[in-house]
Each structure stands twice: as C-alpha cells, then as structure tokens.
Amino acid sequence: METPLTAKIRPDGEMIDLAAYERAGGYQAARKAMRMAPAEITELVKKSTLRGRGGAGFPTGQKWSFVPLGPAAPRPKYLIANADEMEPGTFKDRVLLEGDPHELIEGMIVAARAIEAERGYIFLRGEYTDAAARLSRALAEASAKGYLGRNVFGSGADFDLRLHLSGGRYMCGEETGLLNALEGKRANPRAKPPFPQVSGLFGKPSIVQNVETLCNLPHILDKGADWFVKLGLTGDGGTKLYGASGKVKKPGCWELPMGTPLRELLERYAGGMRDGVRFRGVLPGGASTDFLTADHLDVPMDFTAVAKAGSRLGTGTMIVLDDKTCPVGMVHNLEHFFAQESCGWCTPCWSGLHWAEEILWAIESGRGTPADFDRLDHVTKMCGPGNTFCALAPGAVEPLQSALKYFREDFERHIREKRCPWRNGQ
Amino acid sequence: MLTPEEQREIEEEAAHFPLRRAASIDALRVVQKHRGWVSDDAVKDIAAFLDTSPDDIDSVATFYNLIFRKPVGRHVIMVCDSVSCWVMGYEGLRDRLKSRLGIEMGQTTSDGRFTLLPVVCLGACDRAPTMIVDGQLHANLDLETIDRILERYP
Q: A157: exposed, middle or buried (C-beta count within 10 Å: 0-12, 13-18, 19+)?
C-alpha cells in the first residue's frame, strides 16, 4: 500500500530536514514544475481527479482554471496554504505540518507555478507552535538554497513565501474569512462573486488551498495522474489522511487509499470500541458533518459515497459517539462551539446557532419541552444552505439535524424524564 | 509607547504587506508576546504605528481568541472544550482545574500565577483530553497528570 503523503515522515517525531528530504527525492517535482507551462500543470492536476482535502472537496485543477494567466493578469497573484486546522475533531494537517514541512513548501511551489503566483502565505493557526517552529526552519532552509524568493530554480519566476500566525478564530478557515484575516481585519466572510480566483487578497487573484491538498501535488507531478487515480479504491483518486477520536481503542491518523470503508477504519485501524462501550454513531469528517450510524459502516469513505449516505467526507477525521456518552450533550457541545465561533456577520448564524445552543442546554438540563423539536427544526432550516454568507451555519446544523433523526428517542427521554440520563445526580 | 524592539518586529511584518494595517494581527501578537496582554494604550499605539484608528485595531483585537485585552497571570492555561475532548472527559478536567486553582473559567488566581481559559479544538483529538499552558501542548490528560503539570509552572 502506497503512502506518498506520509512516507518521508520520521518515526521519532522529529521533522525531516531539507537534506534528508532531498535525499528521499524531494524538490524534484518542483524542478519539473518550473520546466512545465502553467496550463500544463493545471491539466495534469485536473486529470488526477484531486479534490480539496479541507472539507468541501472542490476539484483542485478546476479551481485553478479560473485564475487569469499571462502578462495581462493582475499582479501580484497570491497562493495561500490554509493551515488553520480548527474543525473540531480534526488533526490531520498537523501530522503533515510537523512531520514534513518541506512537502507543503514543495507543493506550494508547484501550485504557485500553475497559477503564476509570486507571493504566498502559509496561514497557520496560532496554537500550532511546534508546526510554526518547524515551518520557519524549513522556509529558511529552502530560501537559503534558492528554492524560494527570486528566480526559483533558475526559472526566472519569483515566489516569496511567508508564514502567518493566526490570532485564532474558526472563521479563518473559511476561504474569504481567511483573506480578510490576512488583510488584518476581522475574519468575516465576503460575498461571492467576485470569487477569490479573480479578486482575492488585496483585490488580486488568489488561491486558498488546504495543506493536505497541496502536499499531494509533488507526488502527482512526480508519478503522474493515472498513478494518483489508481491509489484510490473508488472514483475519487489518491490517498486520504483519515483519523478517529472518541472512545475507540487506538485513536489516531492514518494515510489510506481514498474510499477505505468506514468499518475498516473503525475496526482495523482504530481498533474498535474501548472495552465497556458500544458504537452508536460517528461524525465522519469533523464537527460540521451529519452523523452516520451502524447502518452506514460499509460506506466507502470518499466524497461521493459519504454524500450519498447523507453526510460529508469533510476532513476525513471522524469523531465517534459511544453508548456511554449523551448524544444531546455532544450536540450541545458542538452548537456551543459553532455559536461562539460565528463571526456575527449574518443573522441566521449568530441568532440561530445561539438559540440552538440554548434550547439544547435546556433539554440537557431537564427543562426541555416537546415544542423544542419544532424550534430546533426551524433553526436547522433557517441556518441551512442558501440563507447565509458562508458555510459555517449550514455546517453547524448538520450534526444537529442528523442527531434529531437518529437519536430522537434520546432527546424525547431527556424531555420526558426532565433530566439527562447520562449525568449522575441530575 | 511601543518599545524599539516591538516597533522593529511589527515593521518587519508590515513591510511585507501592501497596506500597513494588514499587519494588525501580527502587531497585536508582538505586543502580547512582550507584555502578556494588550492594553488600551497599546491599542492606540499600534493604531498610530499602522496608520489606522484605535477602533479599527480594537475591533480586530476583540475578534480573535488568542489576543488578550485584559491582564493575565504568569501562566495561561487554555483547556480544550471541543467535542473530542468533551467526549473524553473535559468536564471533569475543567472542574478539577477550577477547584485546584480556586477560580472560574476566565479568571486569574489571586497570586497572579495562573489564568484559566477555555479554548476550541487544539487539533490533537487522538490524544484527548488536551490543554495548552503557555503555548505548550499537554495531551492524554487525566486528573492525576494535571496536578503534576501545574507544578511545572511556578
């Protein structure tokens, strides 16, 4: 089984430095990219079927194809790595950032070539202090060798890449919120159109791309689109960094073929449930995805199949719900997060999510009424797609709406017994 | 007044942006690194240094979770209260920290040693529950280990 993304990562937890990275074949793909025409790289990435690994799954080559190219294009153009890993339950980009920072830098050189970007930022969440130190070191190493800055690999093209540490807010992971944050503003979302590919950072053409997505690029350049497609078990090509947290025996993060079935992830890699607890459900791709249950264990974890099952692959890092954990309390915890992290820009989100949190807390603390079901249904509809500027609120209500569907009896029991059956003494 | 060192560090960031005010978050981080928090006076000084208004800087300062607009203790404990840590025992951990320190979330101990804050998911969910103290991650926590960890921060 091939694991291109993580193959170079050292088992001792230290970062792989430039010399070791190059000994393992590193920066050959970047050299190759600098000899290719930008449109040629984009075509290759389109053919590879690579889709964004940050959660939305948008085809990467197609995303780039909207960036204006050639001498008439506005300058400078920007390439930004979204390393603001703040989706609760998600810890996959950390593995790449800490273990193999040069892979990200090389991926960014490739992507910058494809869109002819001369400036780049790695937008890193402020809490990732180890990743910040390692990225700083890797950037210095690559700059000293002339792989970054002026005349990259003698190509005549410049690529100035800098690390930006976030002030901390979930909204910074949203593409246009991130652009505002990089401009030193509040991370409110922007109206689209215009799309960032045309008018992004400081009004210039910009691409914002997730870390894992960028880290795939050197390998696609190196081994080709057909190789990449065949890495996946289903139609969505490549490998995927999957993860599991919650009361499983072996929580962790694993690079596996795209489309690995949920059951295999949970039982073989996560080791099944801890002794004394049973599986009840799972958020398959982070906090903002719909619950799946035991009925969905044979779903292949790719973009298409998880969507068909009624959820989203999201970040591919799953959070497991067990029978000793209260589903109402868990969803309350999620809505507390989303209500707090809402930027306040549009009403369905700042008002709706706050009410969702309040109502869920009322149910959890024994003050719920049957009318709360209608109220929660109303909130999920008002916060759904089409009513808000960005995807925060629609994502926020995904675990709520699916919990109301799959765990309705547990909500009813809280209301009937006027207490949380899982909390002692209440 | 911003110290010469603070000015130099902020200027280095500002020089890379087409607009000076784009370095506002970097500037807030710089000041906080040196002083622990960002006072009203610091907000005014940053605004003047980046050619913008104090309101503009404060709107940014109050938006971001990691910028402190109130004084904090010598050590800042940020406990993850997001979903994986919640499943793995956040509430017990929080209650233990509160009773050990004798403060509520958001407060500072009377000796100025610790400030206790909640923080969103720290991206170490396979090692839940987690917290960071002064930027350093502590994972796989239980009620015994947190006592030992606190002792490392005098």
A: middle
